[in-house]
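Interim report, section 4.2 (structural modelling).
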Amino acid sequence: RAKGNGRNCVALFDIDIQRRAQEHLARATGLRGALANGEIEPHYQPIVNLGTGRVVGVEALARWRTSSGELISPDTFIALAEEIGLIEPLGQHILRTACRDALVWHQASPAPFMLSVNVSPRQFASGDFASMVLTALADTGFPATCLHLEITESALMNEPSVKTTMGELRKHGIKFAIDDFGTGYSSLSSLRRLPVDILKIDKSFVSGITTNAQDRALITAAIDLARSFGLTAIAEGVETQEQLRELTGLDCDLAQGYLWSRPVAAEKVADVMENVGKITHMKVSPMRITR
Ligand code: C2E
Ligand code: MG
Ligand code: MG
Ligand code: MG
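Predicted structure of the assembly:
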């Protein structure tokens, strides 16, 4: 564009680059300050056992609550944190906070209470990832056997150290989930290569389960695959009773989604856990059966 239109546009183009560089710097500075000021915190979304209707744990999802009270989505700041080398301290902060919060729910729960934490490829590739995780567990007292780490398929690729790190953490009982399963292009080979315990079926398939035969076929295949590999299947992004009914029919183990709850702040988790039972109960209510 700049080239075709002569000198003025070249100048405009430079200004554009400069402006964007300044914006980027401002956002980077903002994010660093936010982490330092405690504005980054995990929210929690319950994970539900479809057989019992009970909450078996939560996924921690990072949120940035700005000083003006605005809540910023991780889709914007996680990528930025990775880019500016902030993902390691940010990820460590989320993990430690989540372990501390989840210990309370674990202690109050009659059954083991799982905490699932997202890990970015950059964190995983860092040399001291395993010791960072083990230190967080030791310092907070959260049991290693109840911690799940979620990694996307892209993180699992071409990284020989990943397998070693996973092996070390698994010795302590930590479990690994492949997040957004089905969206990457290495799903099957990563299952063969790496010791994972859980498949999280991406919400893009779940959203089509009742309307799109291909989505339904993919979910069926993923659940079958999980079963034959001895893994647990978790469906992400369940929003409707119809989707829940389909997944239950396919014998999916666990699920999470707005149907039960959006991710909420730590202080709201106890209330949410109480409500989940009521929602799952709806599937056997007379209203549903007469449909
Ligand atoms: P993810 O790990 O695949 O998380 C699931 C996303 O789906 C979350 O978005 C969650 O809020 C959203 N979700 C849950 N249920 C529903 C539903 O029923 N419908 C719809 N439409 N969405 C639903 P969120 O919280 O915005 O997180 C986006 C992504 O950011 C996460 O995807 C994860 O990859 C990343 N992320 C979040 N927290 C962290 C973190 O602490 N560390 C790292 N490295 N990545 C994180
Ligand atoms: Mg996740
Ligand atoms: Mg996911
Ligand atoms: Mg995702």
